UniProtKB/TrEMBL annotation, chain A:
UniProt-listed Pfam families: TctB (PF07331)
Protein name listed in UniProt: Tripartite tricarboxylate transporter TctB family protein
Domain of life the protein comes from: Bacteria
Key words, A-Z: Membrane, Transmembrane, Transmembrane helix
Organism of origin: Palleronia sediminis
Keyword Transmembrane helix: yes
UniProt key word Transmembrane helix: yes
DUF1468 domain location: 8-149
From TrEMBL, chain B:
Protein name per Swiss-Prot or TrEMBL: Tripartite tricarboxylate transporter permease
Database matches in InterPro entries: DUF112_TM
Superkingdom, taxonomy of origin: Bacteria
Stretches that traverse the bilayer: 12-33, 45-69, 75-95, 107-130, 142-162, 169-187, 193-218, 263-284, 326-347, 359-387, 393-411, 418-434, 469-491
Domain DUF112: 20-443
Keywords recorded for this protein, A-Z: Membrane, Transmembrane, Transmembrane helix
UniProtKB/TrEMBL annotation, chain C:
PANTHER family named among the record's database cross-references: BLR4371 PROTEIN (PTHR42928:SF1), TRICARBOXYLATE-BINDING PROTEIN (PTHR42928)
Protein name as catalogued: Tripartite tricarboxylate transporter substrate binding protein
Classification via Gene3D superfamilies: Bordetella uptake gene, domain 1 (3.40.190.150), Periplasmic binding protein-like II (3.40.190.10)
Pfam family, one: TctC
Signal peptide positions (record): 1-28
Family per record: Belongs to the UPF0065 (bug) family.
Species of the source: Palleronia sediminis
Record keyword Signal present: yes
Annotated InterPro entries: BUG, Bug_dom1
UniProt keyword list: Signal
Domain of life: Bacteria
Length: 167, 507, 325
């Protein structure tokens, strides 16, 4: 926990500096007769961010903030496993939308999470993994008219067919 | 008394069988659209607009008003049951709604939210009926300096939200304000902070992207980690008797917040540049400040649900006022309603009340009726939402993740934002573990896009002279109150340190 | 130009080929999926309202087999919309509702790499004129009075608009240059807000579309002084044009629909027919006259000429603006 605190503070300080640098693309000063320039708002706020990461580091050094006193590991074995399985699952879900469309990826993610991580009965898993994307499809495409990603071209005939049903 | 006669005609119009049916369908649809994170009244109203060509204009606007009301009620549902604010107006509802749901009191939170929404809607309808035209001229007198002063006040009421670690709170507020500035600088007309020249940053970072990332992904990961995945969200059983008891408890414990929210929400809501979100945030902050149990806020106090919910409903009705009387949309939803009115051949503006009284009073009549049905239908559906919460966590969690990703995409229809959500989610998980408060960042990204342009517009007006915030008759007092509120806790802190030295606290 | 022409033909050919392989080629092309109806502005503004009106009309008359799905991409003065169209994977199911930022944004942000001459013209739904408005309490009744008032207040005269580089600011810059004025310009987020700020006397004058100021004008809060149109506006017959006052200048905001680069000819034909049908509906005709839009029918070739003319005009206006800044 103690190490994570200072590493995070360091990363956030870098982020603040990057934003400050990026803000200088527009004027960051006070333009006479006009008030602050276009970059001033993000620049000075990022500067305050940088100063606060400095204080976070100071508190770490003095050991006055909660995490800097804690000897617990930042991520124990459960936490690491959870992050890989759940977090990785979410990232996988998003990546798969490019290939299998939002609906296909959703079905695969639900199969993975409910069936593999949740260890529910296979028929519960199967019903949910088909029913939820189907409901979403009709809700978004037909009722709300919000089109979600359709994946790669090989799915196009399928969705074109679905379109003839819903429109 | 002419008003009452017109209003009675309006009521009569709203309870015609076809209109009543439209109200019931509209409210139910709106409730579900609002409950879906990422979708709000904007989507409901925009998408159903074309359908309304099938019915006469008066029925159409009644239908849209019903969807609008339903969605406002629905926003609280995802805030409470899923912990994700479905719309910016429901951010403050998560602060106490979520803890209540986690401690098995979801039904209390949902019922309190419904009752407070009803109260807020009713108060604003009455104010609207009695004072619409004079209030419109009040709204006209609010220029950029006044709106900025109001934003300052909104921030001030939230100083109390800060956690013990001041430096982390300051970081959170400022990073939220920085994210609010991403995309485009309205004043100089130039792109700004387009990180790595990725075109997705041109439209800025939507509030929902940060909120869904933080609450839908980050908070969920944190919950799974900290409970070792063995979480039971709610054991509450639903019965009619339970609803009645909860309703009584909710009313008894939250009437103060409801009252504050109803009035404050309305007055902030009628200002075109402010709207329902600052209204609900300020109501939460003010209720907390004035409450005798303010320490309970944020840990699951019904008043913390009632105040923002009363306010956002009240403000939503309030934001109809500038739309109808000035032709100025106070929110994206009213902007689309405005478009609808133009399509129906009505000219919103100062003449509307005089030239189209049947339409205006029909609409206001339908507000009253929609509000009432929204309450009934919402309460009828509460058992369904509670049942959702009783699902095994390994089914509820993936459902929340799916809703987060889909809702995040639907907001801007850009995969870029989905990746941002995932990124914010992981960052929020790590920062949450290290006790960084994240609610201030979410609030800042909501208020920032109003605060920065109005600050700079004001300074342009005054040729760079900051005294403009103190010398204008309305802005001056608001600014001074806000500054006092902001510095009060700091002064107190310094005072405390000088007086009783605490042995371990060094900050 | 020849290069672009070849490129366009090549792209069109390639698209036609893909369509042929997909097996959907028919004599008349029809959309097979919802049409991405990109709007070059955020939700709620004037351009958005027009786009939604078009969508609603198409829906009402049941003109399309697949719905037009509005998609607001107003980021970076429309840069986001242009980038999205330029890079679309499905040019036959994507169309864009434009305003003048179609011309100005690629000129202002050259690093975007957008060449609008590669885009496919579809339909010109009308052009929106600009009018100079003041508050009735200012007691100004003619353009000459206004000019002398602004000159007296040298630099303290406050006008509002929708942002530097936006349509109204170009007109204001033109006024500054041609009448030797010095105006303080406050950017707001949309035309409706600008109209409200004028009615609330936060600002002293605006250059705004009649559609935005309509309600306040009907109520007598604001007074039109001069129109930047070629002819007097039918809804404001007593307001002189700037041409009558001796300057050869007019300025309109275009309300046009364009397709992305590489849209197939069949699809372009389909959309041209569709928007012609929408244009001919009584709803649209009534909307145009109520909102003071002017007709500017043009064929695809005329549209391209119009684009070139507009690019030249805007280059000139914008270089003046930079000199002034």
């Amino acid at each position: 926990m103690r190490r994570a605190e200072i590493v995070t503070a360091g990363l956030l300080a870098l982020l603040s500096m990057y934003i400050m640098w990026k803000s200088t693309e527009l004027q960051i000063g006070y333009i006479r007769g006009q008030g602050p320039g276009g970059g001033a708002w993000p620049f000075w706020l990022a500067a305050i961010c940088l100063v606060s990461t400095g204080f976070i580091a100071l508190n770490w050094w003095r050991g006055t903030s909660g995490p800097s006193q804690s000897d617990e590991p930042f991520l124990d074995s459960y936490g690491r496993k959870m992050l890989v399985l759940v977090g990785g699952g979410i990232v996988g879900f998003v990546v798969l939308t490019y290939i299998f469309s939002m609906y296909g990826a959703m079905a695969l993610f639900l199969l993975y999470y409910i069936g593999f991580l949740g260890r529910h009965r296979w028929w519960v898993t199967l019903i949910l993994a088909t029913a939820i994307p189907t409901v979403f499809f009709f809700f978004f495409e037909a009722l709300m008219r919000i089109t979600l990603p359709k994946g790669m071209p090989f799915l196009e005939p399928f969705f074109n067919y679905m379109n003839t049903i819903i429109y | 008394m002419e008003t009452l006669g017109l209003l009675a005609d309006g009521f009569w119009l709203a309870i015609q069988p076809i209109n009543l049916m439209l109200i019931i369908i509209g409210v139910t649809l709106g409730l579900f659209i609002g409950a879906m994170p990422g979708l709000g009244s904007v989507n409901g109203v925009a998408i159903l607009l074309p359908i309304t060509f099938l019915v006469p204009p008066a029925s159409a606007i009644i239908f849209l008003a019903a969807i609008y009301y339903g969605a406002m009620y629905g926003g609280a549902i995802s805030s409470i049951t899923l912990g994700i604010p479905g719309a910016s107006t429901a951010v403050a509802t998560t602060f106490d709604g979520r803890p209540l749901a986690m401690s098995g009191r979801a039904s209390l939170a949902l019922i309190t939210a419904a009752l407070a929404s009803f109260a807020g809607g009713t108060v604003s309808n009455v104010l609207f009926t009695l004072f619409a035209p004079p209030l419109a001229s009040v709204a006209l007198n609010f220029g950029p300096p006044e709106i900025f002063a109001l934003m300052l006040l909104a921030f001030a009421t939230f100083i109390g939200l800060s956690s013990d670690d001041i430096s982390k709170t300051v970081f959170s507020i400022c990073i939220g304000l920085v994210f609010a500035a991403v995309g485009f600088d309205q004043i100089s007309g130039a792109p700004r902070l387009v990180f790595f020249d990725i075109s997705g940053f041109l439209h800025g970072i939507n509030f929902l992207v940060l909120a869904i990332g933080v609450y839908g992904i980050g908070e969920m990961l944190w919950t799974i980690d900290s409970t070792r995945g063995k979480i039971t969200t709610s054991e509450a059983k639903m019965s009619v008797k339970g609803i009645v008891t909860d309703a009584k408890e909710g009313m008894a414990r939250s009437w103060r917040g409801t009252t504050i929210g109803s009035f404050l929400g309305f007055f902030v809501g009628i200002l075109p540049a402010a709207g329902a979100t600052p209204g609900s945030l300020m109501s939460y902050g003010v209720s907390k400040m004035l409450s005798r149990e303010s320490a309970q806020f944020g840990k699951g106090h019904p008043e913390g649900v009632a105040a923002p919910e009363a306010a956002n409903n009240s403000a939503s009705t309030g934001s109809m006022l500038p739309m109808l009387t000035l032709g100025i949309p106070g929110s994206p939803t009213t902007a689309i309603l405005l478009g609808g009115m133009v399509i129906w051949g009505l000219v919103p503006g100062p003449r509307l009340f005089a030239e189209q009284p049947e339409f205006v009073w029909g609409l206001i009549g339908s507000f009253y009726v929609s509000n009432f049905f929204a309450l009934l239908i919402n309460i009828a559906f509460i058992p369904l939402f509670i049942w959702m919460l009783r699902m095994p966590f390994t089914i509820l969690a993936p459902l929340i993740f799916v809703l987060s990703i889909v809702g995040g995409y639907a907001t801007t229809r850009d995969m870029h934002d989905v990746w941002l959500i995932v990124g914010f989610g992981f960052a929020a998980f790590f920062m949450r573990k290290l006790d960084y408060p994240l609610a201030p960042a979410v609030l800042a990204i909501v208020l920032g896009p109003i605060a920065e342009p109005t600050l700079r517009q004001s300074l342009l007006l005054s040729s760079g002279d900051p005294t403009i915030f103190f010398t204008r008759p309305v802005a001056g007092p608001i600014t001074i109150i806000a500054l006092i509120l902001i510095f009060l806790p700091l002064i107190k802190k310094v005072w405390d340190r000088r007086g009783g030295r605490r042995p371990s606290a060094a900050e | 130009m020849t290069f672009n022409y070849k490129l366009r033909n090549a792209l069109a050919g390639a698209t036609a080929l893909t369509v042929a392989f997909a097996g959907t080629i028919a004599h008349a092309w029809e959309p097979t999926k919802p049409i991405d109806f990109v709007i070059m502005a955020g939700a709620g503004g004037g351009a958005d309202q027009i786009a939604r009106f078009i969508q609603s009309t198409a829906e009402k008359e049941d003109l399309t087999v697949r719905p037009l799905v509005p998609n607001n991409k107003g980021g970076g003065s429309g840069a986001e919309a242009l980038i999205a169209l330029n890079g679309t994977k499905d040019p036959d199911h994507t169309i864009l509702v434009t305003l003048n930022s179609f011309f100005t944004t690629p000129l202002r942000q050259e690093n975007l790499g957008i060449d609008i001459s590669t885009f496919t013209p579809i339909a010109m739904m009308g052009v929106d004129p600009f009018v100079l408005w003041v508050h009735k309490d200012a007691g100004i009744s003619s353009f000459e009075d206004w000019v002398s008032t602004v000159q007296e207040q040298d630099g303290e005269y406050v006008m509002g608009g929708t942002g530097r580089g936006q349509e109204d600011s170009l007109v204001i810059t033109w006024l500054e240059q041609n009448y030797d004025l010095n105006i303080k310009y406050i950017p707001y987020s949309g035309g409706g807000e600008v109209a409200k700020e004028l009615a609330g006397k936060q600002i002293m004058a605006t250059v705004n579309n009649p559609a935005e100021a309509r309600g306040f004008f009907a109520n007598g809060d604001v007074v039109p002084l001069v129109a930047f149109s070629d002819e007097r506006l039918p809804n404001l017959p007593d307001v002189p044009t700037i041409k009558e006052l001796g300057k050869d200048f007019s300025y309109y905001n275009q309300r046009a629909v364009v397709g992305p680069p590489g849209m197939s000819d069949e699809a372009a034909e389909y959309y041209r027919d569709l928007f012609q049908q929408i244009y001919d509906t009584t709803d649209w005709q009534e909307y145009m006259s109520a909102e003071s839009l002017e007709a500017l029918p043009q064929t695809a070739e005329e549209a391209r000429e119009y684009w070139n003319l507009q690019i030249e005009n805007h280059k000139e206006l914008m270089s003046k603006m930079e000199e002034g800044a």
